[in-house]
Amino acid sequence: MRIIFRVRSSIAYRGVAMKQFLFVLICSFLCVCNACASSAKQDAPSIPIIKLDSTSLVYDIGGVKKDSVSVVTLRIQNKLDRALNIREVRSSCDCVQVAYAPQTLKRNGIAELKITFDTTDLKDETESAIYILTDDMKYEVISLKIILRLLE
Known about the structure:
elongated; alpha+beta; 5-stranded mixed β-sheet; 4-stranded mixed β-sheet; single chain
């Protein structure tokens, strides 16, 4: 009788020890994952994402130094329920140049636009447009209005 009791209590002790070990292991794993996620958020550049979900969009750049050349990177995200083939990206004036290679954006896919502003001949507040030309009949031309204010 005593031998059976000792075996059962030994098994029960091992079960408790195993649960404690698993608990510590899981907590350690979660702490490591949290630390990795925090550092990834800090390392990620703060590039704004423009969601392509309508044909008329607006983005306010904010203040840009007068008589200078500024480069801004924007991300565009396809929020449609299908892939979107971007054929070309144009700007409405010579003061704005857009660097973008034609590509197909999958659903929820993200691409980057590198926009260069030359503010040499601009006035106080300027509105310019970037036109994203696609192969989709409903979203054939997506207009992204860019607003910027000149700083002295």
